[in-house]
Write a structure and sequence with these properties.
By secondary structure, this protein is mostly helical. It is about 80% helix and about 0% strand. The protein is built from 23 helices and no strands.
């Protein structure tokens, strides 16, 4: 046995895997950035039907070249309560189909072996083309395109190194004899699962299997079982994400595991039955060899696609039963946490694996915070006008939520800002969120001040005059109108809606000024006392500042749209 040859092959394989993984990451990062808006639109429709969920999972995974990222994102959505377990399951099914695109691309790059100009060499040249584009491009979009092409080319550079290492191994009779003895399907599935769990990339494991089959280091049947095992091993990323999240996230990770195990078990049982019926003449390898003669890479890639599509078709009608099973395995735990405790509604750390989607969810979380702030502001005005404190507990719960969201959103944005997949516009948006969140938290504080004014009036056994209450309701109505315009401006990045909001804000300034003037007249006429007057003037000032903070939130879109 030539130790130097074995060491060289191992080092070459290691280099090939490293380049392949970096290439996958580079493609994924830049594809996510370029397609971020389409991804946001795509995943927003995930709840419409099971088949649509499968399609979204497949297209999304094909777009970002990472079934792990899609699955972890689905876990994040479930944990945040955005989608149901059934919807998450269908997205995961689709992700398994979408990940087969990588194997098809790799198989395509293996044609022409032995000739001077192979498809792998042609595709590898894209690494240089992409590098030149990245180096000389000035616009962010074209830099991302260059990154995609560079990653695509490097994919085949890594693949070529892996193929070289397999050729070196194939030249060693001792290695070939050792591998030839490993023909137990279950053992091969376990090896494929274990290696994939270590590498944490089913695409790399499938590519290695393709290279081993093409170099005749293993036969097509061994490659098939290794590939089936890689599907199970790919669940490790999702399991890690699920174990560190809530109960529904754990259930989603189990759905992914059981789905992939079920597919492997079904295919193993079917092959065994057909093997017995045919007189031990049947195997998936022989079937796909007859379908695609002379192209072992295509045989394995096509089986990989067939396996995942067939598994989805079998399991899809049983999705509800699968969900029920994992819910029994991971029952609700009332002691885990207080369901009424402050929490993020739309964000989860698992979403950080897909930053473009996390951007969309950050905006939804801020809009939710704005809604909570305005609910408390309106309730505070109702309390001070009626001196009815029956909803004061609801008010306090929302105030605690606002304080929690103020810090939790900022913490999430800080982590999200460090991700490389973000576009320039995404970074601009994230830079505005710090002020927006602070402005919304301040609205909650002003609402809390107004409730304190109401409590003082109750303690003094005083109340506002009818004229004062009418003025409060007037400014409340206009602030509600202002809020509606700001939400449109913020959601749609509408400068037109922002201009309309500015007009309303000017009216509110006039109204609050009139409130102060009118109150002075009432003091002079003896209609209001000095104690009531102090609370009323403070309320008027607080209302004007609430309008200012809302305008501040709207103004952040100017930084994004300019």
């Amino acid at each position: 046995m030539d130790i130097a040859t074995i060491l060289s092959a191992i080092l070459t394989l290691t280099a090939g895997i490293g380049i392949f993984l970096v290439a996958c990451q580079m493609m994924s990062t830049n594809l996510e950035s370029v397609s971020s808006n389409k991804l946001k639109s795509l995943f927003s429709n995930a709840a419409k039907s099971k088949l649509l969920g499968v399609g979204i999972g497949a297209v999304g995974t094909a777009a970002i070249q990472s079934s792990g990222a899609t699955t972890v994102m689905a876990i994040g959505f479930v944990n945040a309560g955005i989608i149901s377990l059934v919807q998450a399951a269908t997205i995961i099914y689709g992700a398994n189909i979408g990940t087969t695109i990588t194997a098809q691309i790799v198989a395509l790059g293996m044609f022409g072996a032995g000739s001077a100009l192979t498809t792998a060499i042609i595709f590898s040249a894209f690494a240089g083309i992409g590098a030149f584009i990245t180096l000389f491009a000035k616009k962010e979009f074209w830099k991302r395109i260059g990154g995609i092409l560079t990653g695509f080319g490097m994919l085949f550079v890594g693949l070529d190194l892996m193929s070289q290492s397999m050729s070196d191994f194939a030249a060693l009779d001792s290695v070939k004899l050792f591998l030839a003895r490993i023909n137990n399907p279950v053992l091969l599935v376990l090896i494929g699962a274990l290696l994939t769990a270590i590498i944490q990339s089913s695409s790399v494991m499938t590519s290695i299997a393709l290279a081993m089959v093409v170099t005749r280091l293993i036969n097509i049947d061994q490659g098939i079982f290794l590939t089936m095992g890689s599907n199970i091993g790919s669940c490790v990323v999702a399991l890690i994400a699920g174990l560190t999240s809530g109960q529904n996230a754990k259930r989603t990770a189990l759905i992914h595991l059981f789905f992939n195990i079920s597919g492997v078990v079904i295919f193993l049982i079917v092959e065994f039955i057909l093997w017995l019926v045919s007189g031990q003449n049947f195997s998936y390898g022989t079937m796909f060899t007859r379908m695609f003669p002379g192209a072992p890479q295509t045989q394995l890639a096509m089986f990989h696609t067939f396996f995942n599509i067939a598994t989805v078709l079998i399991i899809l009608p049983l999705t509800q039963q699968l969900v029920n099973m994992v819910c029994r395995l991971v029952p609700d735990n009332t002691n885990e946490s207080d369901p009424d405790a402050p929490h993020l509604y739309y964000l989860d750390d698992n979403m950080l694996t897909t930053p473009p989607m996390a951007i969309q969810q950050t905006k939804r979380e801020i809009l939710n915070m704005a809604d909570l702030a305005m609910q408390n502001f309106n309730l505070s005005l109702d309390i001070i006008c009626t001196l009815d404190f029956k909803d004061s507990k609801k008010f306090q719960v929302r105030e605690e939520e606002l304080n929690f969201l103020n810090q939790a959103i900022i913490d999430f944005v800080v982590k999200l800002s460090e991700k490389p997949q973000l576009s320039q516009n995404d970074h601009l948006y994230l830079s505005t969120t710090f002020r927006s969140v602070r402005d919304l938290e301040r609205i909650g504080d002003y609402a809390e001040n107004i409730v304190e004014y109401a409590d003082s009036l109750r303690f003094l056994n005083h109340k506002f005059s009818k004229e004062a209450i009418q003025e409060i309701r007037q400014v409340q109505s206009r602030i509600s109108d202002l809020y509606d315009k700001i939400i449109v401006a913020y959601t749609d990045e509408s400068i037109e809606a922002l201009e309309e909001a500015n007009v309303i804000e000017d009216e509110i300034d006039d109204i609050t000024k009139a409130m102060e003037d009118n109150h002075i007249h009432r003091l002079e006429a003896g209609i209001c006392g000095a104690d009531v007057g102090a609370q009323y003037l403070s309320l008027s000032s607080n209302a004007e500042r609430v309008a200012d903070h809302l305008i501040n939130v709207g103004k952040t879109i100017r930084k994004i749209t300019n």
